[in-house]
Specification:
A five-stranded mixed sheet has the order 1-3-2-4-5, sandwiched between helices. Helix content is about 55%, strand content about 10%. The chain is globular. With about 230 residues, the protein is α+β, with helices and mostly antiparallel strands. Helix 4 runs antiparallel to helix 5 and helix 4 packs parallel to helix 7. The chain has ten helices and five strands. It has a single domain, classed as Glutaredoxin (3-Layer(aba) Sandwich), CATH 3.40.30.10.
Length: about 230
């Protein structure tokens, strides 16, 4: 039985629609970044630590240095970042009293902590570490329980104005896996056992520290001018 012109038209329209949909799916698969995996327990190379002591805020001449060992997926670290750190930054770091050093200490039970740390490291390549750092912490409730958080970190990178081509290449390379491992090993050698932990004046302070508690420690090591 012959097919009517109307029937043929509908058939070709349907076929064309399927083809367009197929091309759209193919294009998505081609441009979508591959999933990201950051190696654990990698052997640290000299190049991983050469010239890098951590992510630093504050004056090189500040009388006191504070090293924070933290994990992006740690709820207590988020609490410190959100509640206490703004005062620390404004009243201790920006006033020249403290030099702040952020160090990654990814806990084994947090499956996205190394990917988050690597995302921040890739942002650092483009001068956007603190912006990405902040976005990852603030977004912690959104990505902590996802199947794959890397896509969310990429969204943050886009929002922060990063070149996504460079960012994607950096993430796929996992080139900062050794740096992250070196940071973890540094903390373990110092005696860090939980996050957040703060190293100040040669002593470790574990758990969330309030601004007032940190200020008291800083004052004991370097009294403010006028005292």
């Amino acid at each position: 039985m012959a097919t009517s012109p109307t029937g043929l038209k509908r058939f070709y329209l349907l076929l064309g629609g399927v083809a367009v949909a197929g091309l759209a799916v193919l294009a998505f698969l081609v441009v979508r970044p591959a999933s990201v995996s950051i190696p654990v327990d990698v052997k640290v190379q000299p190049s991983d630590t050469a010239g890098f002591r951590g992510y630093v805020l504050g004056s090189a001449s500040a009388p006191v240095e504070v090293s924070e060992y933290a994990d992006y997926q740690c709820p207590s670290c988020l609490h410190f970042e959100e509640i206490q750190f703004p005062d620390v930054r404004d009243r201790l770091i920006q006033t020249g009293r403290v030099r702040w050093r952020y160090r990654d200490f990814p806990l084994a039970q947090h499956k996205f902590s190394r990917v988050a740390a690597h995302s921040a490291a890739c942002a650092d390549e483009q001068g956007k570490f603190w912006e990405q750092h902040r976005a990852i912490y603030v977004g912690q409730p959104d990505w902590s329980f996802k199947r794959d958080a890397a896509g969310i970190f990429r969204d943050y990178a886009k929002q922060n104005g990063l070149d996504l081509g460079r960012y994607d290449a950096c993430m796929q390379s996992a080139r900062y896996a050794g740096r992250i491992q070196a940071s973890l090993e540094e903390g373990m050698k110092a005696g860090v056992q939980a996050t957040p932990t703060f190293l100040v004046g040669g002593r470790l302070y574990s758990g969330v520290q309030t601004y007032d508690a940190l200020k008291a420690i800083i004052d004991s090591l370097a009294p403010p001018a006028g005292r």
